[in-house]
Amino acid sequence: MIMKKIRSTFILLFLxxxxxxxxxxxxAKYPAxxxxxxxxxxxxxxxxxxxxxxxxxxRLDEQRTLWLFGDTFVSEDRGLKNRIDMDVILGTTLAVxxxxxxxxxxxxxxxxxxxxxxxxxxxxxxxxxxxxxxxxRGSLYIPLLIVQSLPxxxxxxxxxxxxxKIARINNFKAGDPHQWPVDYLDWTHALAAGIEAxxxxxxxxxxxxxxxxxxxxxxxxxxxxxxxxxxIAIDHLDNPANYFEYWTRDGGWQTELKPAEVKIIFPVxxxxxxxxxxAEDHEWLAVYLSPTNKGNQLLHSTARSPEGPWxxxxxxxxxxxxxxxxxxxxxxxxxxxxxxxxxxFAHSRNLVTTYVxxxxxxxxxxxxFLRKNLFLYRPVVRIIQR
Length: 386
Fold this sequence. Notes:
The protein has 386 residues and is mostly beta strands. Helix content is 4%, strand content 40%. The protein has two helices and 28 strands. Strands 1-15-16-19-20-21 form a six-stranded mixed beta sheet, with no helix packed on it. Strands 2, 3, 4, 5 and 6 form a five-stranded antiparallel beta sheet that branches. β5 and β6 (105-110) form a beta hairpin. Residues 1-37 have low confidence and may be disordered.
Protein backbone atom coordinates (compact mmCIF):
# COMPACT_ATOMS: atom_id res chain seq x y z
CA MET A 1 0.00 0.00 0.00
CA ILE A 2 2.99 2.21 0.34
CA MET A 3 4.21 2.03 -3.19
CA LYS A 4 0.90 0.46 -3.86
CA LYS A 5 -0.82 3.34 -2.32
CA ILE A 6 0.97 5.52 -4.65
CA ARG A 7 -0.26 2.92 -6.99
CA SER A 8 -3.55 2.90 -5.34
CA THR A 9 -3.25 6.48 -6.25
CA PHE A 10 -3.35 4.89 -9.55
CA ILE A 11 -6.13 2.50 -9.12
CA LEU A 12 -7.78 5.78 -8.62
CA LEU A 13 -5.62 7.55 -11.14
CA PHE A 14 -4.89 4.81 -13.64
CA LEU A 15 -8.14 2.95 -13.26
CA UNK A 16 -10.42 5.80 -12.54
CA UNK A 17 -8.67 8.94 -13.40
CA UNK A 18 -6.50 7.47 -16.04
CA UNK A 19 -8.89 9.51 -17.71
CA UNK A 20 -8.23 10.61 -13.17
CA UNK A 21 -18.60 -3.46 -1.98
CA UNK A 22 -20.10 -6.45 -1.08
CA UNK A 23 -22.31 -7.58 -3.79
CA UNK A 24 -26.04 -7.23 -3.81
CA UNK A 25 -28.64 -9.87 -4.41
CA UNK A 26 -31.79 -8.78 -6.23
CA UNK A 27 -34.00 -8.08 -4.56
CA ALA A 28 -31.78 -7.46 -1.54
CA LYS A 29 -32.81 -9.81 1.25
CA TYR A 30 -31.06 -9.35 4.56
CA PRO A 31 -31.86 -10.56 8.07
CA ALA A 32 -33.40 -8.04 10.44
CA UNK A 33 -30.84 -5.33 11.12
CA UNK A 34 -29.76 -3.81 14.39
CA UNK A 35 -30.37 -0.07 14.65
CA UNK A 36 -27.66 1.75 12.71
CA UNK A 37 -26.56 3.60 15.83
CA UNK A 38 -25.66 0.20 17.26
CA UNK A 39 -23.71 -1.17 14.34
CA UNK A 40 -21.72 1.42 12.45
CA UNK A 41 -18.50 0.18 10.81
CA UNK A 42 -15.20 1.50 12.11
CA UNK A 43 -11.60 0.63 11.31
CA UNK A 44 -9.32 0.85 14.35
CA UNK A 45 -5.60 0.15 14.25
CA UNK A 46 -5.26 -3.36 15.65
CA UNK A 47 -4.08 -6.87 14.78
CA UNK A 48 -1.08 -5.30 13.00
CA UNK A 49 -3.31 -3.30 10.57
CA UNK A 50 -2.58 0.45 10.23
CA UNK A 51 -4.63 1.55 7.25
CA UNK A 52 -5.60 0.50 3.74
CA UNK A 53 -7.85 1.44 0.86
CA UNK A 54 -10.49 -0.45 -1.12
CA UNK A 55 -12.91 -1.41 1.65
CA UNK A 56 -15.18 -3.62 -0.41
CA UNK A 57 -17.55 -5.60 1.80
CA UNK A 58 -19.97 -8.50 1.46
CA ARG A 59 -22.33 -10.14 3.91
CA LEU A 60 -21.32 -13.78 4.31
CA ASP A 61 -24.17 -14.87 6.60
CA GLU A 62 -26.37 -13.50 9.36
CA GLN A 63 -23.37 -12.83 11.60
CA ARG A 64 -20.36 -12.02 9.40
CA THR A 65 -19.30 -9.43 6.84
CA LEU A 66 -16.08 -9.88 4.88
CA TRP A 67 -13.98 -6.78 4.17
CA LEU A 68 -11.35 -6.59 1.43
CA PHE A 69 -8.60 -3.99 1.43
CA GLY A 70 -5.90 -3.04 -1.04
CA ASP A 71 -2.29 -2.28 -0.18
CA THR A 72 -2.04 -2.18 3.60
CA PHE A 73 0.26 -0.58 6.19
CA VAL A 74 1.29 -3.18 8.78
CA SER A 75 3.46 -3.44 11.87
CA GLU A 76 4.14 -5.90 14.67
CA ASP A 77 4.18 -2.97 17.11
CA ARG A 78 1.02 -1.82 18.87
CA GLY A 79 -0.19 1.68 19.53
CA LEU A 80 1.86 3.43 16.87
CA LYS A 81 0.99 7.08 16.19
CA ASN A 82 2.42 7.27 12.66
CA ARG A 83 3.57 5.03 9.80
CA ILE A 84 7.20 6.08 9.69
CA ASP A 85 9.38 3.05 8.75
CA MET A 86 6.25 0.91 8.56
CA ASP A 87 5.97 -1.99 6.09
CA VAL A 88 3.34 -2.18 3.37
CA ILE A 89 1.62 -5.28 2.01
CA LEU A 90 1.23 -4.93 -1.74
CA GLY A 91 -1.94 -6.75 -2.66
CA THR A 92 -4.99 -7.71 -0.64
CA THR A 93 -5.75 -8.03 3.06
CA LEU A 94 -8.90 -9.31 4.75
CA ALA A 95 -11.03 -8.62 7.79
CA VAL A 96 -14.27 -10.03 9.18
CA UNK A 97 -16.77 -7.96 11.15
CA UNK A 98 -19.77 -8.86 13.29
CA UNK A 99 -22.58 -6.94 14.95
CA UNK A 100 -23.51 -8.00 18.46
CA UNK A 101 -26.95 -7.63 19.99
CA UNK A 102 -25.66 -5.20 22.60
CA UNK A 103 -24.65 -2.59 20.09
CA UNK A 104 -21.09 -3.33 19.11
CA UNK A 105 -19.48 -3.39 15.71
CA UNK A 106 -16.44 -5.63 15.98
CA UNK A 107 -13.83 -6.16 13.31
CA UNK A 108 -10.87 -8.54 13.21
CA UNK A 109 -8.12 -8.15 10.64
CA UNK A 110 -6.55 -11.34 9.33
CA UNK A 111 -3.01 -10.62 8.15
CA UNK A 112 -1.20 -13.40 6.35
CA UNK A 113 2.48 -14.20 6.81
CA UNK A 114 4.85 -16.05 4.54
CA UNK A 115 8.37 -16.93 5.69
CA UNK A 116 7.89 -14.65 8.68
CA UNK A 117 6.92 -11.63 6.56
CA UNK A 118 3.53 -10.02 6.06
CA UNK A 119 2.07 -11.06 2.71
CA UNK A 120 -0.98 -10.56 0.52
CA UNK A 121 -3.95 -12.82 1.22
CA UNK A 122 -4.14 -13.83 -2.45
CA UNK A 123 -1.42 -14.86 -4.87
CA UNK A 124 2.06 -16.16 -4.25
CA UNK A 125 4.25 -14.27 -6.72
CA UNK A 126 1.55 -11.94 -8.02
CA UNK A 127 0.38 -8.51 -7.01
CA UNK A 128 -3.41 -8.75 -6.83
CA UNK A 129 -5.82 -5.94 -5.95
CA UNK A 130 -9.33 -6.73 -4.74
CA UNK A 131 -12.53 -5.70 -6.46
CA UNK A 132 -16.22 -6.11 -5.60
CA UNK A 133 -17.00 -9.68 -4.45
CA UNK A 134 -20.26 -11.53 -4.94
CA UNK A 135 -21.94 -14.77 -3.90
CA UNK A 136 -23.59 -16.94 -6.53
CA ARG A 137 -25.17 -20.32 -5.82
CA GLY A 138 -23.46 -20.57 -2.47
CA SER A 139 -19.92 -19.86 -3.69
CA LEU A 140 -17.98 -16.68 -2.93
CA TYR A 141 -16.23 -15.05 -5.89
CA ILE A 142 -13.58 -12.39 -5.30
CA PRO A 143 -12.45 -10.55 -8.47
CA LEU A 144 -8.78 -9.58 -8.44
CA LEU A 145 -6.77 -7.24 -10.66
CA ILE A 146 -3.36 -8.51 -11.73
CA VAL A 147 -0.94 -5.62 -11.22
CA GLN A 148 2.41 -5.57 -12.98
CA SER A 149 5.34 -3.39 -11.95
CA LEU A 150 7.03 -1.09 -14.46
CA PRO A 151 10.48 -0.50 -12.95
CA UNK A 152 11.56 2.00 -15.60
CA UNK A 153 8.45 4.14 -15.31
CA UNK A 154 8.16 7.22 -13.13
CA UNK A 155 6.28 6.74 -9.83
CA UNK A 156 3.43 6.76 -9.13
CA UNK A 157 2.66 5.44 -12.60
CA UNK A 158 5.20 2.63 -12.49
CA UNK A 159 2.71 -0.22 -12.86
CA UNK A 160 -0.05 -1.44 -15.13
CA UNK A 161 -3.06 -3.72 -14.96
CA UNK A 162 -2.08 -6.99 -16.60
CA UNK A 163 -5.20 -9.08 -16.25
CA UNK A 164 -8.10 -10.36 -14.15
CA LYS A 165 -8.36 -13.32 -11.83
CA ILE A 166 -11.16 -14.63 -9.65
CA ALA A 167 -10.67 -16.27 -6.27
CA ARG A 168 -13.47 -18.83 -6.04
CA ILE A 169 -14.29 -20.05 -2.53
CA ASN A 170 -16.88 -22.79 -2.26
CA ASN A 171 -16.66 -23.13 1.51
CA PHE A 172 -16.24 -20.01 3.63
CA LYS A 173 -17.48 -21.29 6.97
CA ALA A 174 -14.13 -21.23 8.80
CA GLY A 175 -13.61 -18.27 11.13
CA ASP A 176 -10.19 -17.47 9.65
CA PRO A 177 -10.52 -16.61 5.94
CA HIS A 178 -7.05 -17.92 5.29
CA GLN A 179 -8.41 -21.38 6.05
CA TRP A 180 -10.89 -21.15 3.18
CA PRO A 181 -9.95 -23.33 0.19
CA VAL A 182 -9.34 -21.08 -2.82
CA ASP A 183 -9.42 -21.89 -6.53
CA TYR A 184 -8.15 -19.29 -8.97
CA LEU A 185 -9.90 -18.66 -12.26
CA ASP A 186 -8.11 -16.59 -14.91
CA TRP A 187 -10.63 -14.40 -16.73
CA THR A 188 -8.04 -12.26 -18.54
CA HIS A 189 -8.59 -13.68 -22.01
CA ALA A 190 -12.35 -14.02 -21.59
CA LEU A 191 -12.76 -10.23 -21.46
CA ALA A 192 -12.86 -7.80 -24.35
CA ALA A 193 -9.82 -5.64 -25.08
CA GLY A 194 -9.96 -2.25 -23.38
CA ILE A 195 -11.45 -3.43 -20.10
CA GLU A 196 -9.05 -2.12 -17.48
CA ALA A 197 -11.04 -3.05 -14.37
CA UNK A 198 -13.94 -5.49 -14.60
CA UNK A 199 -15.56 -5.62 -11.17
CA UNK A 200 -15.55 -1.96 -10.15
CA UNK A 201 -18.85 -3.12 -8.67
CA UNK A 202 -20.73 -6.41 -8.96
CA UNK A 203 -24.38 -7.37 -8.62
CA UNK A 204 -26.22 -10.68 -8.81
CA UNK A 205 -29.49 -10.14 -10.64
CA UNK A 206 -31.66 -13.01 -11.81
CA UNK A 207 -29.50 -15.66 -13.48
CA UNK A 208 -26.64 -13.24 -14.25
CA UNK A 209 -23.78 -11.43 -12.57
CA UNK A 210 -23.49 -7.82 -13.74
CA UNK A 211 -20.35 -5.66 -13.71
CA UNK A 212 -19.65 -2.03 -14.57
CA UNK A 213 -16.15 -2.28 -16.09
CA UNK A 214 -13.84 0.68 -16.51
CA UNK A 215 -13.28 0.71 -20.27
CA UNK A 216 -11.07 2.72 -22.63
CA UNK A 217 -10.69 2.58 -26.38
CA UNK A 218 -8.61 4.88 -28.57
CA UNK A 219 -8.35 3.55 -32.09
CA UNK A 220 -9.73 4.15 -35.58
CA UNK A 221 -10.85 7.67 -34.63
CA UNK A 222 -13.02 6.26 -31.83
CA UNK A 223 -12.15 7.57 -28.39
CA UNK A 224 -14.15 6.12 -25.51
CA UNK A 225 -13.58 6.24 -21.77
CA UNK A 226 -15.97 5.39 -18.95
CA UNK A 227 -17.85 2.55 -17.29
CA UNK A 228 -19.82 0.17 -19.46
CA UNK A 229 -22.16 -2.67 -18.43
CA UNK A 230 -21.21 -6.33 -18.80
CA UNK A 231 -22.85 -9.52 -17.62
CA ILE A 232 -22.27 -13.25 -17.56
CA ALA A 233 -24.68 -16.07 -16.80
CA ILE A 234 -24.06 -17.71 -13.43
CA ASP A 235 -23.89 -21.05 -15.25
CA HIS A 236 -20.71 -19.90 -17.02
CA LEU A 237 -18.76 -18.28 -14.18
CA ASP A 238 -16.26 -21.13 -14.05
CA ASN A 239 -15.76 -21.14 -17.84
CA PRO A 240 -16.42 -17.59 -19.03
CA ALA A 241 -14.79 -17.60 -22.48
CA ASN A 242 -17.26 -16.38 -25.13
CA TYR A 243 -20.03 -15.92 -22.56
CA PHE A 244 -19.61 -12.27 -21.55
CA GLU A 245 -22.21 -9.89 -22.94
CA TYR A 246 -22.03 -6.10 -23.27
CA TRP A 247 -24.89 -3.58 -23.19
CA THR A 248 -25.24 -1.44 -26.30
CA ARG A 249 -26.56 2.03 -27.02
CA ASP A 250 -29.43 0.42 -28.92
CA GLY A 251 -30.61 -1.35 -25.77
CA GLY A 252 -29.41 -4.88 -26.51
CA TRP A 253 -26.72 -7.33 -25.48
CA GLN A 254 -23.74 -8.30 -27.66
CA THR A 255 -21.18 -11.05 -27.10
CA GLU A 256 -18.65 -8.97 -29.02
CA LEU A 257 -17.77 -5.60 -27.54
CA LYS A 258 -17.99 -3.12 -30.41
CA PRO A 259 -16.58 0.28 -29.38
CA ALA A 260 -18.87 2.22 -31.69
CA GLU A 261 -21.95 0.51 -30.26
CA VAL A 262 -21.25 -0.05 -26.57
CA LYS A 263 -23.21 2.05 -24.06
CA ILE A 264 -21.25 4.21 -21.62
CA ILE A 265 -23.11 4.10 -18.30
CA PHE A 266 -20.86 6.37 -16.19
CA PRO A 267 -18.84 8.69 -18.45
CA VAL A 268 -16.58 9.99 -15.67
CA UNK A 269 -14.72 6.66 -15.50
CA UNK A 270 -14.77 5.03 -12.06
CA UNK A 271 -12.30 2.54 -10.64
CA UNK A 272 -14.55 1.80 -7.63
CA UNK A 273 -18.21 2.31 -6.82
CA UNK A 274 -21.23 0.41 -5.55
CA UNK A 275 -24.52 -0.41 -7.25
CA UNK A 276 -27.11 -1.77 -4.82
CA UNK A 277 -30.82 -2.49 -4.99
CA UNK A 278 -33.14 -0.51 -2.70
CA ALA A 279 -36.34 -2.50 -2.45
CA GLU A 280 -38.25 0.25 -0.65
CA ASP A 281 -37.76 2.55 -3.63
CA HIS A 282 -37.83 -0.17 -6.31
CA GLU A 283 -34.59 1.18 -7.74
CA TRP A 284 -30.87 0.67 -8.00
CA LEU A 285 -28.56 3.16 -6.33
CA ALA A 286 -25.02 3.87 -7.50
CA VAL A 287 -22.69 5.55 -4.98
CA TYR A 288 -19.24 6.83 -5.90
CA LEU A 289 -16.74 9.59 -5.29
CA SER A 290 -16.25 12.16 -8.01
CA PRO A 291 -13.03 11.38 -9.90
CA THR A 292 -12.58 15.11 -10.58
CA ASN A 293 -11.42 17.87 -8.23
CA LYS A 294 -9.46 15.38 -6.14
CA GLY A 295 -12.63 13.47 -5.28
CA ASN A 296 -14.34 16.30 -3.44
CA GLN A 297 -17.93 15.00 -3.65
CA LEU A 298 -19.78 11.81 -2.77
CA LEU A 299 -22.30 11.32 -5.56
CA HIS A 300 -25.23 9.05 -6.33
CA SER A 301 -27.37 8.11 -9.32
CA THR A 302 -30.50 5.94 -9.54
CA ALA A 303 -32.11 3.65 -12.10
CA ARG A 304 -35.02 1.24 -12.32
CA SER A 305 -32.84 -1.48 -13.83
CA PRO A 306 -29.09 -2.17 -13.98
CA GLU A 307 -29.12 -1.11 -17.63
CA GLY A 308 -30.56 2.29 -16.79
CA PRO A 309 -31.31 4.91 -17.83
CA TRP A 310 -29.41 6.37 -14.89
CA UNK A 311 -30.28 9.73 -13.38
CA UNK A 312 -27.75 12.58 -13.53
CA UNK A 313 -25.37 12.42 -10.55
CA UNK A 314 -26.19 14.47 -7.47
CA UNK A 315 -24.30 15.04 -4.23
CA UNK A 316 -25.06 13.02 -1.10
CA UNK A 317 -22.96 15.22 1.17
CA UNK A 318 -21.01 18.46 0.90
CA UNK A 319 -17.33 18.76 0.13
CA UNK A 320 -15.03 16.01 1.40
CA UNK A 321 -13.06 17.54 4.28
CA UNK A 322 -9.73 15.96 3.38
CA UNK A 323 -9.62 17.88 0.09
CA UNK A 324 -11.23 21.08 1.34
CA UNK A 325 -8.58 23.82 1.66
CA UNK A 326 -10.54 25.29 4.58
CA UNK A 327 -10.42 22.04 6.58
CA UNK A 328 -7.71 21.24 9.16
CA UNK A 329 -7.44 17.81 7.50
CA UNK A 330 -6.39 19.31 4.18
CA UNK A 331 -3.05 18.74 2.46
CA UNK A 332 -2.36 19.80 -1.10
CA UNK A 333 -1.17 16.29 -2.02
CA UNK A 334 -4.37 14.55 -0.88
CA UNK A 335 -6.98 13.07 -3.18
CA UNK A 336 -9.98 10.85 -2.34
CA UNK A 337 -11.68 7.93 -4.07
CA UNK A 338 -13.24 4.47 -3.45
CA UNK A 339 -16.68 5.81 -2.54
CA UNK A 340 -19.27 3.08 -2.03
CA UNK A 341 -22.34 2.02 -0.06
CA UNK A 342 -22.47 -0.90 2.39
CA UNK A 343 -26.09 -1.94 2.17
CA UNK A 344 -26.02 -4.60 4.89
CA PHE A 345 -25.43 -1.98 7.60
CA ALA A 346 -28.29 0.29 6.58
CA HIS A 347 -31.18 0.98 8.93
CA SER A 348 -34.42 2.46 7.65
CA ARG A 349 -33.59 4.74 4.72
CA ASN A 350 -30.12 5.75 5.86
CA LEU A 351 -27.05 5.00 3.76
CA VAL A 352 -23.81 3.67 5.23
CA THR A 353 -20.95 4.72 2.98
CA THR A 354 -17.16 4.78 2.95
CA TYR A 355 -14.45 6.52 1.00
CA VAL A 356 -10.66 6.62 1.22
CA UNK A 357 -8.17 9.49 0.88
CA UNK A 358 -4.63 9.01 -0.34
CA UNK A 359 -1.63 11.18 -1.23
CA UNK A 360 0.39 11.80 -4.37
CA UNK A 361 3.41 12.59 -2.20
CA UNK A 362 6.40 10.26 -2.48
CA UNK A 363 5.51 7.42 -0.15
CA UNK A 364 9.13 6.36 0.12
CA UNK A 365 9.72 9.59 2.02
CA UNK A 366 9.35 8.62 5.65
CA UNK A 367 8.29 12.14 6.63
CA UNK A 368 5.47 12.25 4.08
CA PHE A 369 2.06 13.53 5.14
CA LEU A 370 0.57 10.07 4.62
CA ARG A 371 3.08 8.36 6.89
CA LYS A 372 2.86 11.01 9.57
CA ASN A 373 -0.95 11.10 9.74
CA LEU A 374 -2.91 7.96 10.53
CA PHE A 375 -6.26 9.55 9.69
CA LEU A 376 -5.33 9.35 6.01
CA TYR A 377 -5.43 6.19 3.94
CA ARG A 378 -8.16 4.34 5.75
CA PRO A 379 -11.91 3.97 5.14
CA VAL A 380 -13.90 7.02 6.27
CA VAL A 381 -17.46 6.11 7.29
CA ARG A 382 -20.31 8.52 6.55
CA ILE A 383 -23.92 7.90 7.54
CA ILE A 384 -26.27 9.73 5.19
CA GLN A 385 -29.87 10.51 6.06
CA ARG A 386 -32.20 10.10 3.09
